[in-house]
Amino acid sequence: AVRAAGSAGRFGGGRAARGRGGAGLGPHGGRREAPAARVVPVVFSHLQAEPAHKVVASYKPSKFDKKILLWTGRFKTEEEIPPRIPPEMLDRARNKARVKACYIMIGLSVVACFAVIASAKKAAARHESLTSWNLAKKAKWRQEAALAAEAKTK
């Protein structure tokens, strides 16, 4: 694959890359022809045929690591997992598992929010509130304290 070095590329494309564009400076309304772009070959090494693993497989996965590799879809069965794997493979699988776990926790948090909202609406329909609960609890404590003080004086 070849890319022109003078083109706006991935990050360019602003006014500086296109020129000033003043009015009445030429037959094209101020637009100047860009100089011939130099062609620079760009090497895509990640697209070339290479062996499956660049790093020597030097890590023996534990049972938990094997479960992570299976859960993230790297291997279909536990028998497919080689006795030694590259550490980078396990790092990628752990990162993927971390993201999946975060998505699961986000989903559970949303479900819990709706459950709390529903229970609060039911409590409001019964005319219950945290304030009334606290007042009742403190009144009960005062009554128990008065009974304990009365029992001591006898």
From TrEMBL:
PANTHER family: GROWTH AND TRANSFORMATION-DEPENDENT PROTEIN, PROTEIN FAM162B. This is Family with sequence similarity 162 member B. Keywords: Membrane, Transmembrane, Transmembrane helix. The chain crosses the membrane at residues 101-120. It comes from Aquila chrysaetos chrysaetos. It is a single-pass membrane protein. It is found in: Membrane. Residues 1-32 are annotated as: Disordered. Residues 9-28 have a biased composition (Gly residues). Belongs to the UPF0389 family. GO terms for cellular component: membrane.
